[in-house]
Specification:
4-stranded antiparallel β-sheet, alpha+beta, globular
């Protein structure tokens, strides 16, 4: 067999590529990699021997140095025949199989140890951080997603006897005097071992994802991580404190851990490390310059009294709220999960919304006389200068009259949103049971809570509408957008401020920029189909698309999440969706809006399809995606590796088809849209069909074989639609009839 030469750095085989041959390394070396693992093949090793059973690769191969490869066309069914032709080749295949098995199994055991080690490292140092905070009288800050983290538990694992079994099998088969040299037997050994190797690598992928999850908590691009907690604490206590040495040592250990994690973005790590070293060199004695802040917030002294007095709540409510907030402010660990802390947060939450409601109703009587501190309460959840911290209180006081929202551009603060409902400019949102205001009143009448006369009166009562919004949507969404449901408290508190407030304040400009980035990739995301008719000029029925961007409502909290609350208002499909995010968004706003756009696409499709949303006989985004996930195990277009990834993704998505789609949609916009493939063939084709890239991106990706077939089909259908409109336009021109603006815009839309 002829030997083909490859220079160093050549990508020989990519994961998920079809396997049609075995490749023997005649000289040189090859790097074999899979999620979480890497090993090296040398002269005499066989590429593909671990995967031939499946007919596709789940390992990626790249030359390390100039390498010679001899290829032997072969499939699983042809393996025994190939071995019969050459005893030396058969022995080489089997020997290489056992060497590769040992490499992969050793990495499997090492990764298991690493997962346990890094989990305990994170948990122990997180608790140590909180202990240091308590010691120094500083409120510890909570890491998002820590509540969801648990020790690694495998649903399936390798049997304990596998290691000893293959060790003995290797000795039996590779011994020169062995009687086990039948080619059928050897082929069987290879094909059976392939299944075990695939199981091991599948578990290694679980290990890799678990380590990546913990790595994200140790360090990430949003600075919401343990590294930032320790660095921030060090900056606060200063270099001269006796605990600073311990903190610096822990940070150094953390950096060593991070350097060894393959999932960490190297560029991001280097930047964060450089920032830390620069600050460490200039670290002072920890004295905080709060005097200036104290001068600036002279007007917010006794903020709670101002708010309670303005709201005109009962004495009992005022006393209870004041006592609860003061107790909460004095807690060292405000995120504590014990029963007493949980009840205290629940008590504050209940009283907070009662006070908010009364204060808002009063503000509608004379909006021009609302004190700035009360505006801070409405827009930020601010109640107390000590709880918020002097510097934060100063910032909020300075910003409250110039919050960069803009209702004209569909970006509202919570107070602006409630005001719009009160003035009749917006209708109330559906409640958590998906009932709109009229439906809610009807249900109340049917249950005997109100009379028919009450229902008729309340239908158009602006006060009843806004109270419905404040009592139903507001508490639920405020908690969800905060992000940490178990430790939620609606009051603005310094311990939740993990990043600079000015940099995290959501503005209408930031929202517009994020949506522009999304629509530059998924241009049709917010377009809806409507029917256009104009019998007077011979237009019977044409489908045209109109873009309706969502309303964005900024919840008064410092949070990490967003939620797509409803896809339309009432029953009219050309009304805007409603999406909520925190007014101070700790996570990346664009990433959050990408996720909400995926959520919107799924829910809007369900709304249009109705009861047949998952009926594959009626093609739609939801029906095709539902069918793909439901029957992925039987799908011949998916490789074994792709099926394995789907299984793991479904576990992470808690078997939610919608969550699976949203995750794929995020990959579609954030990665595939910039030319970095992340999806499998089937998922990519479905999403491209219903969420096509803009023309500019399609042109760039046309040369990529991963997209070419799907894009060609899309272009054919698109050309047919454009041709139809060209014919319609020509007929109108022939009769001297002006072309309707709606049809002109539709043709422009088709060319996007």
């Amino acid at each position: 067999m002829a030997v083909k030469e490859f220079p160093a750095g050549t990508h020989l085989i990519q994961s998920e590529q079809n396997l049609t041959a075995l490749h023997v390394i005649a000289k040189g070396s090859v790097c074999a990699s899979y999620p979480g693992g890497t090993f090296y093949l040398k002269k005499g090793d066989v590429i593909g021997v671990c995967e031939i059973f499946f007919g596709s690769h789940f390992i990626t191969y790249e030359t390390e140095e100039p390498t010679g490869i001899a290829s032997y066309p072969c499939t699983a069914l042809q393996l025994s025949t190939l071995m019969q032709k050459s005893v030396d080749l058969a022995n080489m295949i089997v020997a290489s199989l056992f060497r590769q098995f040992r490499e992969i199994y050793d990495q499997y055991e090492l990764m298991r140890f690493d997962c346990e080690n890094i989990y305990h490292f994170l948990m122990n140092h997180y608790e140590e951080y909180k202990s240091f905070c308590v010691k120094h009288g500083i409120a510890p800050r909570a890491l998002p997603d820590m509540d969801d983290l648990s020790p690694l538990i495998l649903e399936e694992d390798m049997e304990s006897w596998i290691d000893g079994y293959y060790e003995q099998l290797t000795a039996m088969v590779t011994e020169k005097s062995s009687k086990f040299h039948s080619t059928d037997f050897l082929a069987g050994v290879v094909l059976k071992a392939d299944q075990d190797i695939h199981r091991i690598i599948s578990i290694c992928r679980v290990f890799y994802d678990y380590k990546a999850e913990i790595a994200h908590l140790l360090m990430n691009e949003n600075h919401l991580d343990l590294f930032d907690l320790y660095a921030g604490l060090l900056y606060k206590i200063g270099a001269n404190d006796k605990d600073s040495t311990t903190l610096i040592a822990t940070i150094s250990t953390m950096m060593i851990q991070l350097e060894d994690l393959p999932s960490i973005d190297r560029e991001m790590y280097q930047q964060r490390a450089a920032e830390y070293r620069a600050k460490l060199e200039n670290l002072g004695d920890g004295t905080e310059e709060t005097a200036a802040a104290a001068d600036e917030v002279a007007d917010v002294e006794n903020s709670m009294n101002t708010i309670l007095t303005y709201a005109e709540v009962s004495t009992e409510t005022a006393v209870s709220f004041r006592e609860a907030v003061n107790k909460f402010a004095n807690m060292t660990d405000k995120n504590a999960s014990d029963d007493a802390a949980r009840k205290l947060r629940m008590s504050i939450t209940k009283l907070f919304y009662q006070i908010y409601e009364k204060a808002f109703v009063k503000s509608m009587k004379d909006p021009s006389s609302v004190p700035k501190v009360v505006k801070m309460f409405f827009n930020f959840g601010y109640v107390d200068e000590n709880l918020a911290g002097l510097e934060n209180a100063a910032y909020l006081y300075k910003m409250v009259d110039k919050i960069p929202s803009d209702p004209k551009r569909k970006v509202y603060t919570a107070y602006e949103w409630f005001t719009a409902i009160y003035k009749g400019q917006k209708e109330p949102s559906r409640n958590e049971f998906d009932s709109d205001f009229p439906t809610f009143l009807r249900e109340q009448k049917m249950s005997g809570n109100i009379t028919a006369a009450d229902e008729a009166r309340m239908q158009n009562d602006p006060l009843e509408k806004v109270l419905f919004e404040i009592r139903n949507m507001f508490p639920t969404v405020n908690k969800i957008t905060f992000g940490r449901v178990l430790s939620f408290c609606p009051t603005f508190s310094d311990h939740n401020v993990l990043k600079d407030l000015d940099g995290t304040l959501v503005s209408a400009d930031k929202v517009a920029e994020a949506f522009q980035q999304i629509r530059a990739i998924d241009f049709s995301a917010y377009y809806r189909d409507v029917i256009y008719t104009n019998p007077d000029i011979g237009i019977g029925k044409e489908t045209v698309s109109v873009e309706v961007l969502p309303d964005i409502i900024l919840m008064p909290n410092v949070g990490t999440r967003g939620i797509a609350w409803q896809e339309i208002e009432g029953r009219k499909r050309t009304t805007p969706a409603r999406m909520m995010v925190s007014i101070f968004q700790m996570e990346d706003l664009t990433n959050i809006l990408v996720r909400l756009t995926g959520d919107f696409r799924w829910e809007m499709c369900k709304r249009i399809q109705g009861a047949r949303w998952n009926d594959i006989s009626e093609a739609s985004l939801t029906s095709e995606y539902f069918d793909y996930i439901q029957f992925y195990r039987k799908n011949r277009e998916l490789s074994a590796d792709a099926k394995d990834k789907i299984k793991l993704s479904m576990q992470k998505a808690k078997n939610s088809y919608k969550e699976m789609f949203i995750r794929d949609y995020e990959a579609w916009v954030l990665y595939e849209g910039v030319g970095s493939p992340r999806l499998n063939k089937v998922s990519r084709n479905i999403i491209f069909t219903y969420c096509p890239f803009s023309k500019e991106i399609r042109t760039k990706l046309m040369a990529n074989p991963l997209y070419k077939e799907t894009m060609t089909r899309y272009d054919i259908k698109l050309a047919q639609k454009i041709h139809h409109y060209d014919n319609v336009f020509q007929k109108l021109k022939n009769t001297g009839t002006p072309i309707p603006t709606e049809l002109q815009k539709q043709r422009e839309y088709l060319c996007m």
